[in-house]
Amino acid sequence: MAFQPKNFTRPAIGRGGSLGLLYDASSDCVIYSQSILKGEAPLEAIEVTETPNIKHEITTEDSLHEKLSKLDVSGELSASLMGGLFELSGSGKYLSNQKSTAKVESSSVICNIKTKHERLILGSDALRGVLDLDTLAHGDATHVITGIHWGGNCIVTAEASLDDSVDSTDAGGSANISGKWAEVMIKVSGKGEMESNDQNTKHSFKFTTTADIAVDFAMPEDFKQAAEFIKKIPEDLREPNKGKGVPIQYDLTSLPTLAKRFEAGTTVREESMIATLREDCLAQFVDLFHRINTVKQDVNAYLDDVMAHPKCVPGSQVAKARKTFSDIRNMEIELKREFQRALLKLRQAKAESGSSDAHGELFNLLARYSNRDGVGREIYSSILYEYRDKMDMADWFSKKGVNYVTDAPRNLERFVMFEGGDQFVLYFNELTRAGENWDKTYTLFHELVVNRAAKKTYKVAVVDCDVGYVANAGPRKLAKAFIEKRRDGKIIVADVVADMQALAGKSLLRCQDPTQLETSRAILAPPPGRRVVRVFCPGEHCFNSERSEWVCPDCREAVCFGHGLAAGGWDDSLYCGCGRYPVSQGQFKCGNPVHGAGYYSFADPDHLAGLLRNLDLSDECSVMILSEKGVDKPTLISSLWNYLLFGSLDEALNSRGPLKVATHSPRAFSHEGQTVLGGEDISASSPRKIKYDLAVKNRTVRLFDVADIDTAVGSAQAPRVLNEILSVLRSVDRLDAVLFILPPDAASLSDEFKLYMTNVISQLQLGNNKLDSHLMFGFASSGKAGQFALGDTKMPLNSILQTAGIQISLGQGNTFFFDQEGFGFPALHRTAAPSTQSIDRSEGLNDRWTASAINARRLIQEVTRLAPLNIRESLCLERTRRFIADMKGPMAKHVLLTATAAESRLAEQEKLGNVEAEMKELDKELAAMKDGGDARTKLPKPKTVCCFPGCAVFKDGASPGEKVRASCCSACTVDPVEDGKEGSSRLRYCWAFYDRQKETYLDDCVICGHGRKLHMHACYDKNIARRDNSDVTKEKDDLEEERRAILRRTSDNETLEKEFAKEAETVENALVCFGVYLKDWVPNVKDMIAALKDAISGGLERLVCDAATNEGERVKRLRELQKSYDDRLERVADRIEAGRPSAESHHGEIEDVMAKLYETTHLGLELKKATSTSSGHVAASENANPPASDSTVTAASPGGDASAGNDVPPESRVQAAVSQDSAAAAPTEEGLSSPWESVPMLTP
């Protein structure tokens, strides 16, 4: 138990006092009412020492530990201070002063002056005459003030708001304040003057003083006045007590020491020895109080912030911050009260046990409060950072002049009423800032705010939906943040970001100077020889080796180059839906992420013009047509061709040439000048695949007509049609677009159509970043009420597209409308008799034909602007993805066969040991025969005998007095056995240990009752008659032959294991190649590898579960094999994550890897069978096509061949499993030949 020393010193820290006053060290209080002196001490009883000294010190720290150190307060006095055992006054108030908020930075100058030291001369006779020794018996006192150090302390503190700090080198700003104090100290020392160009106004800093005396001059308002203030401090501090100043430190002498010194007969306080607080405990309490104070400052600063942002922080958050601050403040008061009680208990302890209890209570107090909310920043940081970023964002908006309003209708109305022109309004709340679209939305709005400062052509506003109300319904609930575009107060775009999704990843080309854009309707259509612009991007960071296809960001149409010769030379103009503009005005922004946010122009416009003049014009485009039920595609295709050829119905009727007719028959024929429609019966077993080549103005438009869902057979044909669509994709060399034909006003679409539409989109998304622009939608209507606007079909169609992950807006660039039966009238006109050719066509037929012709030409125009889809890569990506999925079964079986091969090898090795042991026994028998000894006879079946001496019995024929071990099982069926080995594990399945009633094997013999370890197998028995030597020799020769067979089988198994290991390495490298190839297109590559891992682990786990409880070695081997494959697949996942596709990573390389897997000896057979079962959904490869087989791969059952009994040898099981279906068919070329019949267009 540690105690305070009997005599010590204590800093006065503002507490007045005089010589002779009593002092209570347990509470560090001066007892002003009691003194050992009856009056003032005689001068001759006081020793006075002059100690003149002035010290100035600058401090920037605000921690309690730093303040205690600067005022020389340590140990027990600091504990009393924290416990609130006495009131602070004078300079001591500096210790209790705390910043109210963390957003204030402070720095102080501490001025310490010493003048004199006075102490009582205890041996002086003059002192004895004024002593009142009876006061030594005062119950509360422990010491007497016997010495005083005189002088004074004064602390001048400068505070500055972090926002107001000037020349701050960091967020805190303390370097600036301490630098100013350094200048002050130079002036005070008389070594220089302060700089006159003080950048801080007098309101930048707040000055406060804490002194042991009251100063009689004004508080400084800047650092120059502070310098003058500090110069006068020594004079003021010396003035009291005749120039001595005030007490700054006391010398304390214990009561027992004085009583003994003066031989007082008075009984003094026995417990004047005060127990001290352990240093580690004290340090932890100092840290705890500091942390609580820091928390309080931070929360108070946060409270100030949220109250200063009423437009973006809801009132509930302000109330939450206010309550948190109150809770922390109350916790600090509670802690101080409990600490005071525990500290007094410690200091009043009279024994070691009491001190231990008190210290234990203090440490418990530490533990309890250290774990409470509000003590550490990590606990309350959630509230400190709530709305923090939002407040910073609101401040930035305010600085940029953005109109930031709460979600009240009138607020926005004022903005749109007084701000004309284009207006962009951001709607958001705190929850939407965590949404998926926030980054895109904020980035766009940020650009709008920044660009507005330069352009000033539009206005911006923010509506904060956390604050305010909508129609008295409380805060608005937003599903996501969005930007609304208004023009003169009217909404023209409800969601700007969603509207711009169609431009994501596209290369944009715009007119630099809008005044150079000609918008006359006469020039909106580009000349006939126009070319779609495909040039390199001029961006300074763009080094793309591919030419980009450029789209206008405003009209969303592909930009074309005039290309044709005009009257004055080349037509060097760029065309889009907005109009035309000179080539020199073109600004480019490609879809490459490294391009950046800006647009770039070609440094040499003539160079760009040269590139554009050399653009190629493709003479072919290909479109695959898919339709919903009920659409007559042959008739529609016939109509489409004639719409392309004839712009009006009159033109079609007046044409002397034949009408163009689509037919299902590969034969073209006519009949007496009449138009004839050919056809064929399309059954479920004979799907239709027709290719039409349409010649349109020196351009070939190739249409691929795929079998549709037959209304009669319904969804049963969905797999067939889906397989047919995939065969189309495998067979075409070029595909520019997919045209879906639907009715315009269907409230719902068939499930079959949804199925193959989503599958086609999913297939084509692989390998094609910009698939959305290649999807076209044709709407076929019939009859007088032909519809040329999208009706009820829009909702179900958008639903399918959303399910397929396509972000697309149905509009002018991808929707086309046709009169499905428009072709019928001119056909009827051609075939009718001359007297009946005046057919009535007044019911809108002319208009429907003209509108259909415009849509047909617009369709071809849009398609010709597109770059071809990457079909090869798309098919290979899909096949690779499915190939990995198909590997699960073969890989699981491959691993099981690997385990079986290893177990077979080990079983053969065990057999080899037994055979060699038997051969040694036969050698002994032959030697015994040679020496004339008795021969042994091999038993037909091994017997199980007990080795316990008490179980031995006499046997007829044995030597006199010789006992033979008792037989517990005369014909054991266990095979193989270990002859003569006591406690062999092979005894586990002997009938001698089987309890037939319980139907289980026991550890004790059911015959003799002894344990299994006291038994053994015996394969030989002594025989009275001697065996013939030739019989023994023959038996040995048979064993030798068996030994050689075992060695051959062991070698075969070792070869199998090596082959399996080599194939596993090949699989690892292949999976890495597949994964790296897929990962940029398929998001779940890791899941696919994990599925492989689960399949393999599942098979091995079943083997482990089926293993016998005593087969520990086998279980261990299986676990090691399982771990090796787990590690291998983990390594595969890591290599995929680290890898990047090489320049050669394309479908050819992937097919080569697949071919190598098919060529593997064992795994290849299983892969061919597995992949053939999914060949209806996967493209076949020219290099490595799996066989057409309906067989299904089944992994070897752990409870089957791999763990069967002894009827089938392990080596036979492995060979049978590996060689199963070894005669599988070689890969076929089915599906590689073109499925198309090139059908000429019939002319009558």
From TrEMBL:
Cross-referenced InterPro entries: DUF7656 (IPR056073), DUF8206 (IPR058519), P-loop_NTPase (IPR027417), SNTX_MACPF/CDC-like_dom (IPR056072)
Start and end residues of each stretch annotated as Disordered: 1168-1244
Compositional bias of kind Low complexity: 1214-1226
Key words of the record: Coiled coil
Domain of life from the UniProt record: Eukaryota
Compositional bias annotation for Polar residues: 1170-1195
Domain DUF7656: 398-500
Domain SNTX MACPF/CDC-like: 9-266
Coiled coil (residue ranges): 905-932, 1022-1059
Residue ranges constituting the DUF8206 domain according to the UniProt record: 938-1020
Protein name: Uncharacterized protein
Species in which this protein is naturally found: Cladorrhinum samala
Lineage, uppermost ranks: Eukaryota, Fungi, Dikarya, Ascomycota, Pezizomycotina
